[in-house]
Amino acid sequence: MTATQHPHVREAPALYDSFAQYGSGVTLVTTRDGGEDLFFIAASVLTASVDPFTIAVSMGRTRAGAAAIAAGAPWAVSILAADHLGLVRTLTGPTTREERLAALAAAGAERTDEGPVVLPDALVALACTTHAVTPVADQLLVVGEVRRGSAHRESPPLLRWNRGFVTGAQTLEG
């Protein structure tokens, strides 16, 4: 999608295009609300503090799970590897909720003790609780305290860059 096609870019499309050049890791963010699994793919996750260890996630206010996370529901982050590309395409593509849930099940998603699911073959999985929520334009900037983390494996990460997905210097289909 070009800047001129993006519904939220009214002015400064060059700035929107410029930010597409900022690479970031791709993560699966999950929570539960009323017994329902809620999840989305995020590319804006960063370390906010190391004492205590916290991460910050930028999420659209209408993202599945955003309201539950902002209200304090436990949530989890799975940092995705390059071989999760097919899963990411299913979770972000024009698929039904049932197809997305089936894709998570096929990927082996496991429920944490806190409730949300994580991917057992993720590079890292983090169990979090919400520390602070700051509204920023059409987003929520959520800072979560990491309660527990586990490294599962070493593998090239899946990155979001230039409106596609890449790993290292090799571009994967976007």
Automatic annotation (TrEMBL):
The keyword Oxidoreductase applies. Residues 19-167 form the Flavin reductase like domain. Its EC number is 1.-.-.-. Keywords: Oxidoreductase. GO terms for molecular function: oxidoreductase activity. Pfam families: Flavin_Reduct. This is Flavin reductase family protein. It comes from Brachybacterium hainanense.
